[in-house]
Design brief:
This protein has ten helices and twelve strands. By secondary structure, the protein is α+β, with helices and mostly antiparallel strands. Helix 1 crosses helix 2. The two termini are 36 Å apart. The chain binds ligand MTE.
Length: 303
Amino acid sequence: MLIRRPDDIPSSEITPESLYQNRRDFVGTAGALALGAMFAPSVLDAAPLIGQDDKLTSEEDATSYNNYYEFGTDKDEPKDLAKNFRSKPWKIEVAGLVKKPQTYAFEDLFRALSVQDRVYRHRCVEAWSMVIPWQGTPLREVIARCEPLPSAKFVEFTTLYDPARMPGQTRPALPWPYKEALRMDEAMHPLALLATGMYGKALPNQNGAPLKLVVPWKYGFKGIKAIVKIRFTDKMPNTTWGDANPSEYGFYANVNPTVDHPRWSQAKERRIGQLLKVPTLMFNGYAEQVASLYAGMDLRKNY
Ligand code: MTE
């Protein structure tokens, strides 16, 4: 298991991109065996992380077609407008229902935690999708370091608010700062990741450097970027898109082909870089691993 950060790895040790196709197969089949060592077998058994028709999205597409309203509302803007953003040094405040509220340097929060390779489907609420090789730390390892109290039922994440560095924040495109949240059991699920790299490199600015939440069974807007605060609470927090438009964006945001967005169908998705649409899968294809988190819940109501 890797315990180094992606940007500490010498370039000679980084997997060449041409090998990712093989790594993809590895994660899809034999990978279940290797990953089984890290996860409870029931989490990954018989449920490949990616399926047969999943091809890795090109690095060029994944780093030039972005949603990041702090750097513009057009998909091609973040790459350009974020290119001089400095994500070092970086601090993360841990607050709320924890043993000891404190602010960590980025390096200290992740020190000696694992860094793992995960190829995940990435499904945006706008009905496009990608398949991305992330590097990151399981969120539950970071949560353990934060030492939440048993009374904590939700965890909330906040993006940096600094209009001088994030030009989109000078306009009211969204209520700033961007916030997202998970129920504690969702956050503790082994598939939930705090990504610090992709395609074997440190996370690019436009993808949320230095750290982005990745919750592969949920729509992409849950994947908050450039996190500066992690707060534990006993009440369900408000979220940015929920505040901006509550009838369109719910707290759970689980990928669900049977519940349409009020303005479009969610039954199919367009894979960026591919011609034909593909059917959207329940929980983005991770139902086997995560459906039990929502047993007994009305997923039409709790969208
Ligand atoms: N985080 C912040 N801070 N601001 C944003 O505008 N957009 C979200 C999410 N995280 C967003 C954000 C949306 S809508 C999506 S689909 C994903 O980031 C896009 O992530 P990507 O650019 O890495 O594909």
